[in-house]
Design goal:
Layout (H helix, E strand, L loop, with lengths): L2 E2 H11 L4 E4 L6 H7 L6 E4 L3 H15 L3 E5 L3 H5 L1 H9 L4 E7 L15 H5 L5 E4 L6 H12 L6 E7 H5 L1 E2 L21 H13 L3 E5 L1 H6 L2 H11 L3 E3 L24 H9 L2 E5 L5 H4 L10 E6 L13 E4 L2 H11 L7 H10 L15 H12 L4 E4 L3 H9 L8 E2 L10 H11 L5 E6 L10 H6 L4 E7 L4 H10 L32 H7 L3 E5 L5 H10 L4 E6 L23
Parallel strand pairs: 2-3, 2-4, 4-5, 5-7, 6-7, 9-10, 9-11, 11-12, 12-13, 14-15, 14-16, 16-17, 17-19, 18-19
Antiparallel strand pairs: 1-8
Bound molecules: thiamine diphosphate.
Amino acid sequence: MNKTGAQIVIDAMLKEDVEVVFGYPGGVVIPIFDVLYDTKEINFILTRHEQAAAHAADGFARATGKTGVCIATSGPGATNIMTGLATAYLDSIPMVAITGQVASPLLGTDAFQEADIVGISRPITKHNFLVKSVDELPKVLKQAFHIANTGRPGPVLVDIPLDVSRGVMENYSYPEEVSLRSYKPNLNGHAKQIEKAAEMISQSKKPVIFAGGGIIHSGADKELKELAEKTNIPVTTTFMGLGGFPGDHPLFIGMPGMHGAKCANFTLQECDLIISVGARFDDRVTGYVQSFAPNASIIHMDIDPAAISKIIKVDVPVVGDAKNILTALNKIIKKRKADSWNDQVNEWKGEKLFSYTDSDSEIKPQAVIEKLYDITKGEALVATEVGQHQMWAAQYFRYLKPRTLISSGGLGTMGFGMPAAMGAAFGNRSLPVVDIAGDGSIQMNIQELATLAINNIPVKVIILNNSYLGMVRQWQQLFFNRRYSSTCLRGGSLCPVCNGPENCTKKYIPDFVKLAESYNVAAFRCDEPAEVENVLRKGLEVDGPAVMEFIVSQEENVYPMVPAGKPLDDILEG
Ligand SMILES: Cc1ncc(C[n+]2csc(CCOP(=O)(O)OP(=O)(O)O)c2C)c(N)n1
């Protein structure tokens, strides 16, 4: 059968069971959009910005484990998705991004809307392709989907020149198999290494399990729970691993790191063995690396051999898929009773992993998130933007199941949450989807309220409005002598000396409620602590999208805090 390049792109999506595609059109992708026009099996969502399309594809992938797909045009369309690719790359999220490119004869001539997208995206994609001819398109697309969602997942970009999408391939068929000589992810951990790990665990006096996003990517949450319960070893999960182990389990000790639970940090610093599964020892987790876990031996299970001993010297590496490795380990692991080490950890844990001082006169941001957890009982997908609210969302909402927290961990991308929530809503129709936002971050992709409204996507946006770029302001308060340079969203250059928020007379813009209403999105504002529950319930009950703005305490800080470059147990408290 003869097919055009554009038809091949869409046929590949159908063969790969793609249900939803996010994107934005432009000159060189018109042929692909023209085929989409007749393709009823694919739900195409027109976002208002290409960056949002990439984040939405990413959010869909995080909620489902399937590969997210987005399309953008050449030049500015393609450069607009770069932040989305980098976000997905750092968090190992499977995505395929299709970009249009100027026709092959024009490549390298500074043609209209030409940019070297393969060059620009090389360091932020797992792999990328510039398609040279229509005949190689099916193979490239098959490889792209395969690479994105196998091994350590990641984003793959396919750049398609106009003459390729217009060209015709004779005798088209979509390949059934992929053969890539240099790409063969190792899925089963080495049996001898797994035995060594089991032996080390049985000899350890003070072990801790340290689980990361790899647990979620490989669907190894049940195996992790089995290991923990058999051995009674306390479990800490990284920010990316939240939900990979039930947040209300007695063995759960919170996330570690800069804004982690004191208990998790003390446990890591005191333990004699770290059993790391699918975690990459990010600097926000380890603090000052040289003094991280000074007495511990390290077992590191990871799908990516390049992650082993990259940051921390590893004693027993096990390269493979977390689910496979843990299944094998659980078969041979000896039972272990809770002992004085567990008592010590439980003492550090206390009654609550995190606490703050509540108030009757002003809304505490932490209280809004706690109330959201109470109302939903954890039965929700929580997306976040980036900043203080993101850390409070990690601390005060408990994640009971995998894929319930959708947040940019590695890149820390402001503007990620609302479009990602939109994508997640397509991946999970049964749970409410909430975006917890700061008033700064939400403005980075606020135009997506239009996409939510027009498609009636039931994302609930909670804006914790503190009038500040709060997380940066917190650093300025603690480490730059309270010099709030360019972090107040009211003032700007008109008020060089800040007399504090209580004396501020500047009006806040925008009016989020009016703005949301102009997009036809239901909106509520709350500035009374006593009204928080009521407003949350009202917003959650709306049939469709809603914005809930909470005017919160302006100079609240995220604690505990390990200052950058300090050891994990050097902790600041409020
Ligand atoms: C795209 C982008 N630009 C800048 C930053 C740096 N940054 C990190 S947190 C933050 C402040 C976020 O403010 P807001 O969204 O209001 O949330 P809050 O911290 O007040 O909860 C900034 C500017 C970033 N992470 N991403």
